[in-house]
Every structure is written in structure tokens, then in C-alpha cells.
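Appendix B. Raw example, untouched.
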Amino acid sequence: MAASATVTDDSLYPIAVLIDELRNEDVQLRLNSIKKLSTIALALGMERTRSELLPFLTDTIYDEDEVLLALAEQLGSFTPLVGGPTHVNCLLPPLESLATVEETVVRDKAVESLRTISKEHSSSDLERYFVPLVKRLASGDWFTSRTSACGLFSVCYQRVSNPVKAELRLNFKNLCTDDTPMVRRAAASKLGEFAKVLELENLKSEIIPMFTTLASDEQDSVRLLAVEACVSIAQLLKREEVEKLVMPTLRQAVEDKSWRVRYMVADKFTELQKAIGPEITKKDLVPAFQNLLKDCEAEVRASAANKIKDFCENLPTEGQQQIIMTHILPTIKGVDFFNEKLNSLCMAWLVDHVYAIREAATNNLRKLTQKFGKVWAQNTILPKVLAMSSNPNYLHRMTTLFCVNALYEVCGKDITTKIMLPTVLRMGSDAVANVRFNVAKTLQKIGSTLDYSPLHNEVKPVLDKLSKDQDIDVKYFAQEALIVLCLN
């Protein structure tokens, strides 16, 4: 039924009401009528919805963007109302029209609905109805239709015949080299998604060249979107293939002349790290990340900084701490930044089940204290270190002592005497002999920095008690400490 028809038959009343409401000057009334479409469709029945309502809507797409947006959203759930998958293709014409309008949010919603109903098509109907729609949009005169087409290739590719697949790949390739930057941007944003549904050989022979082309585009807005595709592509390839086919382009992006591209690399860095794997991460991504942290643009540095914790946690266990201490920490200038991003990670190493990691972690704390100062250590590190002295796990209590041994010199006499010594002395009564003899060894070390009063009035009584301990090792180390400190 044409939109201009005069309706008198009561059986056509829902359409008549809709026509009147859509002609009303009140946008809100028109919007409300669109939101009632499913109710109207139920009243009309499936056949009249297909033959009257949908043609009317297709011919009436000229409304306010808000109304068109609501229409695009409604049509995505219309499959049951038109008779199910057998008739779902009748929803394509109005959505195709909506996919070409000027307003981006309307086009995006139309594409979203098209993607939804593509799943309702049989394989034969995909080739008969849906693929021709994709081709029409991809070759449309207006860039709006070509940008919309980019989001539809991945949802139909896997369920069509090989000749049709070849046509779709060619169409997508043409969009990647379109004269209009907006189209190339849309293609770049969907490249990774399309790559995931392609056969491996076609991925390597066709998608990789598209990726390389987009990553070298004259428009930085296109190049930065190619970085996002890099993540998806790297996940699909073997390590040696990533090294050969992806890394040259990624290295280029890290040093791109546009800060926006470098910003995107930083923003996607941990995703790239996971996709590329540990070996290439150590070889290429660590120095690249270091450069991003020192980038000349504040936005790039900030984006990279937000990824520090995740990047460090995802580094290979072997060599993780060395990489962090050698390559990451030297780039960090503010204390607050370290506290926010890496403090929890470094402290977590102190309770790792592997002794070598706990030992290295204590050395890390000493280097950090040298870098950030003893006041920082007193306020940030020591409360957590000393709290471990009460942990039920004796290995954690031992770590407290190891940290004291590593920190007492850089923290100085006052902090050692007032903050650390009381905890060490209290641990002299620990139930575990290994802890007690390490208390004796620790007191021997820090005793040389103490004044006469705490040394003789506090340390000596504890060592005297430990020198009479029932455990032979505790007794030995306590007596040795008394001799070295001249307290016997």
C-alpha cells in the first residue's frame, strides 16, 4: 500500500494509524509510533506485515534521525513477525535503505540489525538475497553505503560457496583502497574481524597485503585502525609468520610520525603482547614499550603508562624482573606513578613460592629505595614488609628478615632503629627455628649501624636468649653475632 493511499477499511486501521502518526509534525509522536511497530505487526499478521508494512516503511525512510534510529533497531528483531527465517529476506530492503543514510549512528544500527538477521538466512538465501545486498552497498555511489558494507562481509563469508567467497574478498579489497578516507577507515576497522573468518592461505595471501596497505595509508586515521587489526591477525599466525608478516608493519607503527598512531599502539599494547607471544615480546615489544613510555607526546606516554602493570605481569616469568628493573623502572620518574602501577606487582614477588624470585624481589626493593628515597620506603614499603612478620606462613616471615637485611643500609640508622628493629627483636621468639636463627643473623648485620643504647639494652638480651636455644643452629648463629658485635 502506498503511503499516500486513503484508508477506509477497518482491517487496514493499524496501517492508517501509523501513516497518520508518521505524517504528524510532532517528532515524539512519530518516534512513539515506530516503537509500537512490533505491536502493529502482530495486529496485521505476518503476511500483511510483509506485503504492506515493510514496503510502506521502505518508502517512508526520510524522517528525523531519532526516528530512523528507532526503526533500524526495531527491524533487527522482526524475524518472527514476518514469518521466521523463510521470509527474513523481506527485512533487507528497509535496512539497506537505512544503511545508506547520512547519520552515522543510524547506519551503524542498521548494520547491526543486518548482522543479526544474517544469521537467520539459510546458506542459499544468503547467496540469493544477502550477498547481493552487500555487493550493492560496497559499490554504491555514496560513501555512506560503502562504509556500511564493510561491517557485513564477516557475517556471511563462511556460509557461501567458494566462488562467492572470492567475490567477497575482491569487494573488500576494493574498499581497502577506496578513494574516500572514510571508507578506508571503515575497512580498516573491520579488517581484523574479516581476517578471523578467512581460510589461512587467503589470510596470508590477501588480508596481509590489505593490512600492509592500510597501515601505510596517507591518512593517520586509517593507519591507527590498522593497528587494531594487527592484534586479530597476529593471533591467527604462527610465531615465525608473525615475525615475517606482521612485525615489520608494527615496528613502523611504533615510530609513526603521527602521535595518534603511536597512541593506538600504546593503547593496544597488552593485547599485542598476548597475540604476539613471549619470544617476540622480549625481542621487539620491550624496547618498543620503552620508547612509548618516553614518547615526546604526553598522550602517548600516558596511554603506555596505563598499560605498565598488565605489560609487566604478562612478561615471561623467566627474566621478568630483570626486564622490569632494566627497561621499565628507569623510565619511571614519579613516585606516585610507581605506587599506582607497579607497587602491588613488586610486593607480590615477595611472597612468590619460588625462593629465587623472593630473593630477587628483596634486591628490587633496595634499588627502588635508592631511587625513590628512604621516606618513600618508610611510608610505602616497610609497613607491608613488616606486616609479613605475623603471617602464618613462616616463609613469609623469613622474607621480612631478608628485606630488613637488604634495606637497613639504604634506609639509615634512624629508620632501622625505630621502625625495623622492634619487629626483628619480636621475631626472636618465633616458633620456627629457621626464623629464629635468621633473626640472629639479621641482628648481627644491622647491629653494626646501631647506637650503644639499643645495641646493649635491646639487641644483647635477645641474642643472649637465642644463644641458649635448644636448636643447635639458632644457638650457633646467636653466639656468633654476640662475638662479632662484641657483646659476649
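End of appendix B.
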